[in-house]
Design brief:
With 271 residues, this protein is of the alpha/beta class. It folds into two domains: 2-156, Rossmann fold, CATH 3.40.50.300; 168-266, 2-Layer Sandwich (Transcription Regulator spoIIAA). It has helices at 6-22, 37-45, 52-56, 65-69, 77-93, 107-111, 115-123, 147-156, 188-201, 220-232, 245-253, and strands at 2-3, 26-30, 60-63, 99-104, 134-141, 168-172, 176-183, 207-218, 238-243, 262-266. It has a five-stranded parallel beta sheet. Strand 9 (238-243), helix 11 and strand 10 (262-266) form a beta-alpha-beta unit. The longest helix has 17 residues, at 6-22. This is Anti-anti-sigma regulatory factor. It holds the Pfam family MEDS.
Length: 271
Amino acid sequence: MSYEDGDSRAQIMAAFVWLGVARGEKVTVFADPALSEQEVRDAVQARGPSVAPALNRGQLEFSSMRALLSPDHEFTVGRQHARLTEETEHALRQGYTGFRAFIDMAWVRDLGADIAVMIRRETHSAHLFTGRPYSEICAYDRRWFAGDVLDHMAKSHPYQLLDRLGVLNIVESDDTLLVIGEADISGRARFTDGVRAALTRTERAALLTIDLSRLHFLSLGCATDLLALTLAATTRPQIAVACDPYVARTLRRLGSDSISKLALIEVSRQC
């Protein structure tokens, strides 16, 4: 993920932390070294329950990249990889279901690490996740990292997160509309405009796919608009909506099965 202020960073960090705790995972936050540990704790606790129980039982830790690499003082790709692997295996031995780390990439500036070496680490870390219950968010401050580095990292990681909770993002292509985030009342106009534009733009194509598989919430208003626009698209041979079973059930209850040109494709959520 990339962020441009402390609030957006804290939102994603806290959500990631509390999801890990709820799943029985060991969670470590490698925060911006410019922040005190108390500031980071307060940011997480302000967006969830008290951190004390998870801290006291050792499930949640606040650390730093310096501490992870210790006793080494210089960052190397091999050292960081080895230590994260060790932490994952240690978490499993302790009885946790996995290990997750929130890593603020401000450590690069703090350790004076070479950007090229950091990029190599970010693009050669797939083995950390293969066969291991390990997950990680790398958080980049857009005010410090160059645009070309951020673009490269966005392409290199398997997922690029939205920079805050509760927002809606729409990605358009010739025959696909990808909807990401939350389609609630605040994003209804954008959602509806995006669907309408896609139907208009691709009216001569044989198939339009509206991909809702990375949507976390679809309001009844947005769902109703989707079906109404689909029904009104008289020139289109076929429209496919890819969505998780919950969204599919909502659309069916609103009458999607009665629209002959509409096909629902149930898939696992892609986020």
